[in-house]
Amino acid sequence: MGRIISNFFIALDGVVEKPETWHMPYFNDEMGAIIGSGMQTNKAFLMGRKLYEEWSAHWTASTDEIADYFNTIPKYVVSSSLRDPAWNNTTVVPGDPEAVRAVKDGVDGDIAMSGSATTARWLLAHGLLDELRLLLHPIAAGEGQKLFEGNATHKLELADCTTLSTGVLNLAYRPVS
After folding, report:
1. Which among 90, 106, 109, 88 is positioned nearest to 98, based on CA atoms?
2. Where does the record locate the signal sequence feature (predicted)?
């Protein structure tokens, strides 16, 4: 059975949107190794429709090693409106918890999920997220979508924590039942 692991670059104020505007000064070989390690264990990728549209346009036009990774890994898109995905190795999954559970049952290994706070919150609310990995940057982004918005409460336990030389915290949390 697969485990869904959500990954985010996150600012101290909870912002996860547009990390390209605040994240890069903190990127170094340490962080690259953490990201690379996660990519090596991933057997599939789960995303929402908006991220699918953004990433399929970007990665299909790219030719580097990371593009090869995203273009070949099995991808599952949670969507009720996407009908004919053109991106290689993509399967559309209806936006209901049982369909996502079926994906988890069918994948032997980690299923990465990134880039959509909305999808991460939906997975948490339905008991589908197995781990939340955050690279917490020592910056307040000031504006943008936050990982947690609204009134929902999600109890998490710290599973792992390391500090990078840049002051970024590499955090892993697991939902508490």
Report:
1. 106
2. none
Neighbours of 96 (CB within 10 A): 12
Residue among 46, 40, 44 nearest 128 (CA)? 46
Whole-angstrom distance, CA of residue 55 vs CA of residue 34: 21
Whether 47 and 100 have beta carbons less than 8 Å apart is answered as no
**What are the Cα distances from residue 37, in Å, to 13, 19, 34, 40, 110?**
26, 20, 5, 5, 12
pLDDT digits (tens, 9 = 90+) for 98-155: 999 999 999 999 999 998 999 999 999 999 999 999 999 999 999 999 999 888 899 9
- Residue 19's CB: how many other CB atoms inside 10 A? 20
For the entire predicted model, the pTM comes to 0.92
**What is the H or E stretch that residue 100 is in?**
helix 97-106
Domains and CATH numbers, the chain: 3-175 (3.40.430.10)
Best CA proximity match to 7, nearest among 105, 90, 119, 96? 119
